[in-house]
Amino acid sequence: MTDNLIQLLSPIIFFISNVLIQLIICRYQSRMGLLKTELTGFLSGLLFFITFSYIYFTDITADTFYIFIVDLIIYTALSYCYFHFINLSVTARRIRIVRDLYKNEEGMTKSEILKVYNASVMVDNRVQRMINSGQIIIKDNMLYIGKPILLLIAKIIVLLKFIILGSKSLDETNK
Amino acid sequence: MKVLEYGLIITFLSLILHFIIWKIRLPKRHTLTILWIFMQVLAIGLIFGIIKGLGMIELIHISLFVVSLTFAYIITYSAIEADSPSLVMIIAIADAGINGLSVERFHEMMSNDLLVVPRLNDILRDKLAYKDENDKYILTKKGKIFAQIFTNFRALLRIEVSGG
User: Fold this and answer.
1) CB proximity A63 to B under 8 Å
2) Could you report the per-residue pLDDT of A100-114, keeping only the tens digit for each?
3) Is residue A69 part of a domain?
4) Which residues of A touch B80 (CB under 8 A)?
């Protein structure tokens, strides 16, 4: 019973440790980029989790191994959600617009919203982020693909969109 | 082993059901419908587990497994549902090939109608805001809570860039 309870709680406890480590690093080590703090938090939590499992479950049976896999999947899935939660708070358009509206209690018209946040602002923000991360290269006022990681992710997303939604774009589907 | 078996079966059945429903007709509220499908299949799976004599902790473990995968899938789905600007941009640059894409042409391609207006419509659809008689977007109570969560979280992380 105790073992089962520990197995159940361990991915949650180590996920919380991941979040706490990331938050502490992010607050007190501002020079480290956000992505590096996320990776450090994830790897630290994972290391604690694997070490704990190795020490606690000395008698490795098929059952403890399968439970370890289940807990590893839970830990990874929760960390993945947290990673996206952080990224959403930085990059998501909907959140940016909602935050702008929150600052203006009396509300904003569409043109007022577009004055402070428009495609041009967004493109500048994102191009700068992608240049900083090496995903795109700018040379003589021309843009080129740099590291192919984001392009690969983009192609996978387009493929998934086609499989699940039957189109290249949902905005296209809704027209 | 049972937790892994039940967890995987419930997740795969939910995904299959989700794909079938999507092939028949796209629902209005994608995320809510996915959540509803996964939680219904989980409930059925748990009832089946109780009949098969699984213990309380095993049932909670299965639920935690399925719920964490459900949230991970929903987050991934949100990237499929909405056209991510960064991905739209990277594809546009890739399509230009070895000659590259001029910054001016790039700005012309990335219009408000493509990048901002669909998200404004989403905000209304998701009832985060409504339009008043002066055509102003006003946050609803739900929208204010949503904004507060992210504003506080950004303050906690000391994120200073305006983002988006």
Assistant:
1) yes
2) 999 998 899 999 999
3) yes
4) 157, 160-161, 164-165, 170
Q: Do the domain assignments include residue A118?
A: no
Q: Which two tokens mark A132?
A: 């900083």
Range(s) of the domain holding residue A44: 2-91
Q: What is the mean pLDDT of chain B?
A: 91
Q: In what order do the strands lie in the sheet with A142-145?
A: A136-139, A142-145, B101-102
| Nearest-angstrom CA–CA distance, B163 and A121 | 10
- Residue (of A11, A84, A57) closest to B3 by Cα position: A11
Is B53 in a helix, a strand, or coil? coil
Q: How many residues does chain B have?
A: 164
d(CA A43, CA A105): 41
CA angle A56, A60, A66 (to 5 degrees): 100
* Residue A168 included in any domain: no
CA distance A100 to chain B (A): 9
Please check whether residue A58 lies inside any domain of the structure.
Answer: yes
Total structural domains within chain A: 1
ipTM value, please give it.
0.84
